[in-house]
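User: We ran a pulldown and think these components assemble together. Before we commit to crystallization trials, I'd like a predicted model of the whole complex to look at. Sequences follow.
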Amino acid sequence: MTRRLALAALAGSALLIAASYATAVLPGGAPPAAGWGMALGIPATLVSLMILGAARPGQGIGRLAWPFAFVGGALVLGFGLALALPADEAAGVPLYLGLPLRAAVILYGIGLMPIAVLPVAYALTFSTQTLSQADIDRVRLAGEAWARGRASVASADSAGGGAHGSVSVDSTTASQDDELAAAAGTVGR
Amino acid sequence: MIAMTMLAPAPATPALPVESHPAIVWVALAYFAVVAAISVWASRRTRTAKDFFVAGHGIGLVALTVASVSTSVSGFAFIGGPGLIYSIGLGAMYIVLPASVTNVMGAWVLAKRMRLLGEARGLITVPDAIGARYRSPAAQALSGIAILVGIVGYMATNALAMGVVIDALFGIGIGWGIWIGMGVTLAYSVAGGILAGIYVDVFQGTLMALASVLVFLFVLKVGGGMTGISHRILSVDPAFLGPWGKITPLAALSFFFVFAVGSLGQPQGVHKYYMLRDPLQLRWYPLLKTLGLILVLLLYFGVGVGVKSLVAGGAMPALRAPDEATPAFLLRFTPVVLAAVVFSGVAAATMSAVNSFINIGAAVVTHDLPVALGRRLSNELRWGRISTVVIAIAAAALAQVSGSMVAFLGIFGWGLFACTLVPALAIGLNWDGATREGALASIGTGLVLTLCFETMSYLKVYSFPAGVTVSGLSLVASILVFFAVSWLTRGGRGSEIDPDVRLVMEV
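Assistant: Here's a predicted model for the assembly, 696 residues in total across the polymer chains.
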């Protein structure tokens, strides 16, 4: 379910970005709405890609929902403020950490703030959400089973005079698929 | 892509304004001596094609991280990037701002799955992964061809950039610079393959991070801190420090989109996931890489705004060309040894980029295309070395003879990789509903749109509206085509996945 939602969000955000580009061909150039389309579409694209990569079958994204929501929100807010706040860059304006307000929002809010959240969340949830030794062992076993299946197909082909002694990637048979699935302990689609 | 345009002017363009100071020459020679020593060491450890193309899956976390940072920035971060900021203000930051998100996004979306595919299948190339995911030699071949097309541009423009920088260091002319730079790169690429490349990257990445921090500190000292720098710029050119710089919001956000999502399709970065010795070390990879990138990019931002401020305050004359920002600042305001390290680092960075692309191109020619055709070569290591030489010579020759065409070739590299590989690889490895037909259609769409649009734009047949980039348009089109065709062809043979690959997609 989590992955389906992420895929729907990814497709939707791609459409939004495409629509933003499309408005640029209108007479008079891109309207302000084009910037807003990108400001919403880009964070949605990035967060949905991260969810797609982090979600595990039956577990969703778990505690990662919070950092993803925070970073998605920070990107939308940062781009939104840059678009919505009045352009007041001029000599003598107050500076925030050495920059005018809107530039500070972009450089510090979008360029630096996510660093304090996302890589740390990735490291802290790595063994539960991303990869464990047990996962690696299962994958190794599945790979070995796949290689055995390929070898048996290749020897059967060469015994039967198969062309060039090579095997097409598509030539794995249904019964071998079953054997590999059993070896991998793979989960259903 | 902008890296190439900024770093690699046509051969007729004047060289960078670096004086042939003895200290600069000696530091450069010392730099090349270290590179030679590393390549000799690496050549003794390169015995198989797996060693040559993926360092035998044996690189540790720190080495891989530093090498990956080094490959990500290339020479653009030190010459073209600061020049671009000097020209268009903070709008140029949208090329590097995505780094706060892209490294960890790449780790979630691709790193684990690519590394596990290497574990299960012994894969060594990016097209290998696409072929395995879709059980499709055709998809493997088409993605390999797309990578080769992109590499032609990158290689030629980086070869020219090498010539420009080496000429600046030694004053030998751009033509000789191209061939000497390519000769040095070729020597360590052929001998030590990607292993030599990785450890050269570690050496030069470490030095560049250090140099970048020092240069940034000099910028703050000379400019009176960020407050002083901003006040001077705001007094003469307020738009420079606006949130979009001197470009439109749509253009700035388009940069962000292409460089954020497109990072998932850059073979020189994605390919490195195969090389990590222990997959569990991925835990700290995004954090370390992001911090490393921030350090290296301090020079990009610092010199760009610092030089603008110094020019605004009358402490420097206006630049004749934006690419002079870094050399002019270093020669005026930093010790000559630091300047020498940065100049040598720029040369090494372009060589490192060339090495990565030579290696990836050689893998496509000697591994992906033969495998896709069902005729695997008997000695991939030997053929890998031969194709490395051929590709390098072709790129150097192309850089020397193609004139202004070389900049055009370099323009579409990043975008082409992004729109041909992101849907099929990054989305496809995370969505079991993606089909072989969808992958082929998206790679084809990305390839055709990028080549056609960039050619039309180059020949001035059609100009895209302000803010619309060819790479952004092609990327979003290829993603939508991927979804649409996969949905239309779902349930057919093209949606079958091998059980071990399915397991990799679901762990």
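Chain B has one domain: 2-506. That may be worth checking against your pulldown data before setting up trials.

User: Thanks, that helps.
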